[in-house]
Structures are given as structure tokens and as C-alpha cells.
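Morning run. Coffee first, then this:
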Amino acid sequence: MSRRSSRTSTVKRSRTRRAGESAYGVVLLVRTGVLALLALLLLVAGVWTSWGTAQYAMLVKARERGTMTVAACADDRCTGPYVPTEGDGRRRAKVSVARAAAPGKGQRVEVTVKPGTADAVRTGLAGILHAWVPFGGSLLLAALVVAGGLRWRRTAWAVGLCGAALLVAAFAAL
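And here it is:
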């Protein structure tokens, strides 16, 4: 016959062991929080960097809009004459646009001129996608932090694929 005990056995852990387990839990919680903040910081930095150009490419109401003919390219900027099509703009002999956003020499591109400068930003879908390229890069970096540090693999895949899709779309549009 088997004898069953009506009492359940409990094992008491020492205070030192309980304190050690609590400290390890706190360390894991702090690690998770720090890595989540790092991923968030990467995303905020990407949006901040992109918004400097994206606001001109996306929000073109009451701004100087027109076309620029690419005349010459040097280093990371292309220059050419500007002809306004909308707004209160004036003709300019020379404005510059980022070389990555400019088509080949002699081609025309729709731009908006930043107020008070001779810097132009490409408009339309290609200009908007080009403006958000830094955010796409920050999505890829944040995916590495989310996958490697937080071990949230599905979230990391989603974030990384969104970043890659944005970069590929920008490359295809330009």
C-alpha cells in the first residue's frame, strides 16, 4: 500500500538566496528597459533627422515650388536654374539639391525651395521617400537592438522589414 501524506512539503529558501533572485530579476528588468530606450532613441533620432527635409517635401502649401534643371553636379550637391510654378516664388539662376535625389544632368525635377536659402528639396513620391531614408536606416538599426538585446524576434523582423522596404522603395523611386 502506498502511503500518501496529507502534508505538502515546502522548502524554505535562505534570505541570501531570495535577495539574490530578486536582484537578478531587477537586473533583467533594467536591462530590458535600457535596451527598449535605446531602440526608441534610434527611432526618434531617425524621425528627427528625416523631418528636417521631409517637411519641405511633404508639406508644400504656401512654399516656393517649381522645377529645377540639373546643370552640374559636384560632391554631394547638384545645381541648376530654378523656375517657379506655384506660390510666390521668383526665378533663380542657381539652386542646389542633394545629388542622391537629382536625376541625370540636363533633366528637370520638381522641387521646393527652403525659405531664405538656395537649397531645394525634391518633391513628389521620390522626394518624400528620399527624405525618409535616415528613418529607414534607424529602423534597421533598431531591429538589431530588438532582436539581439531584447530577443523579440518577430517584432525585430517586422521593424527590419519596414526599414528595408522604405530603403528599397526610395532607391526604386529615384
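The CA atoms of residues 40 and 138 lie 10 Å apart. Good start to the day.
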